[in-house]
Amino acid sequence: xxxxxxxPDTIEAIKERVDIVDVISEYVVxxxxxxxxxxxxxxxxxxxxxxxxxxxxxxxxxxxxGQGGNTFKFLMELGKRSFGDVVLELANRYQVPIxxxxxxxxxxxxxxxxxxxxxxEILAVTTAFYQHVLYxxxxxxxxxxxKEKRGLxxxxxxxxxxxxxxEGWETLYxxxxxxxxxxxxxxxxxxxxxxxxTNNGYYDQFRDRLxxxxxxxxxxxxxxxxxxxxxxxxxxLNSPETPLFDKGKTLFGLDKAKNxxxxxxxxxxxxGYFDVITLHAAGFTHAIAALGTAFSKEQLKLLLRYTDSxxxxxxxxxxxxxxxxxxxxxxxxxxxxxxxxxNLRVLNLPEGKDADEFLKSSSESIQQYQALINxxxxxxxxxxxxxxxxxxxxxxxxxxxxGKGMIQLLNQxxxxxxxxxxxxxxxxxxxxxxxxxxxxxxxxxxTQAKGSSDVITRGQKNKARIFSQFNPDSLLVKSxxxxxxxxxxxxxxRQEIIQQLEEKNLMFSQxxxxxxxxxxxxxxxxxxxxxxxxNRLFSLLQDIYLEYPEQMKQVQCLFFLSxxxxxxxxxxxxxxxxxxxxxxxxxxxxxxxxxLVKWEEFLKINDFERSQYYYQEFLKSKQxxxxxxxxxxxxxxx
Length: 638
Ligand SMILES: [Zn+2]
Hints:
- The chain is built from 29 helices and 15 strands.
- By secondary structure, the chain is of the alpha+beta class.
């Protein structure tokens, strides 16, 4: 079959739609290993996996034979197929409409491609121009504003490439078109100049403004945000949409935040440019902002590529507009929230401050901000809090409104664990401290919330999807691996690890981890290796390879450190408590499931006393899990 020439849009759309892990999983058994997946290489014979796949980078690589590339390359290599063939198959499977190219179109496309390159260049040159002007006498006022009003250090001003667009109608126009000889049409396309309406000629889009370059994920400038320091309207003015700049698909600061988001496994979403800049300056380098428009599903998906546990915190302004923006953003990404694809929290700063104001408010504000992040409510709790704003439950009409709002929210919950939790939570609010009313309110909500009668069956079907903030298995395995690695490589922490495991009565869940741990204890005991400055344990363990080849193969990777593991181990003192917390969490979670089943059992036979007991136990364990989660996150900064 003849393969038609494919439009690059089709290829881009496929790249967006297809996940490399899904594709490769069909051919290779992949296991989660840290942030990546690994398996046996399909391109060469091997017994232990040296083939790894990175979901964040959407590439694969084999450390054994050196094969590597993206999804297309994988399918081409594996089936010895052509590029077009593979693209067509993927387009078909993921229902991406196929656009093809005629020869003339192809030429046109090449022209467009070279135009894009030129647009990038024009924007880069403009950025440098604005930066230069900031340090000239004309830019003095703006520079002073940045330093004094905004409290920004020179490094941050540099890092964000802030600049100043001079006064005058044609300064940039003359520089780019007359001096640098860039094609007029392209400068206009880049959103930098506009045609005059009345007579011929062009004028600069940005005049006498503080300029904030907006970069794509690779750090290339694709547009500008700007702020006037005078009385000009509007106060904030962005570049128009251009072939390079799509507001709905861009996040301000993501190019600078992506590594940090990956490391901290968490992202903060704020409203304004200066919120991002101030947060970065204060060390919260995992902050980004949507661009004036509401936070969109595309933007969220872009963000989620970088956080393994899908932790996103909305920190919009706490005023009315900010609350609306939060609600709008939650609405926009609702399907992703309810299906558990994002673990969303909402942070409202005290006294209606935005992040920028808050961080400048006192000398302890950085620690305070971190604490507020750690304690920010889950999106659902926040929604309930919003229902109660300015409501007096003693008033019949208010009571009814709140009750209705709660039912509406509860009806959207797909997860039984959550439903049970929030039914009781709402019932407690509605009974206003009168415990005698509690069972009645629970029953009211139970009957009104749709499908809640079979909480248990639902629970077994879609087990704790939203609340399981991390894939428990991978988190557990990761934590166990980390503990064992620290134990093997960092002598000074051995005592602490043994102590913690014994104190909390915890054991490794993976049989090969348990095997290694028993061997470790055995060797230490028999040789009295209490203190082991030469790390004899390490080499003695290697020796048992001959005796237990199968088991040792499974734990061999613990003896070699990847770069990531190295970093975690470097921070061992912080990693140990969070790894322990992760292991502990799993056992508490099992207990909470048990309590949930009991709660419903007794509720069904109207035994309120016993159902309450299990409910309290359930709550307690939920709290404990929450604390353990915080320990994991809090103890694991970048
Ligand atoms: Zn290979």
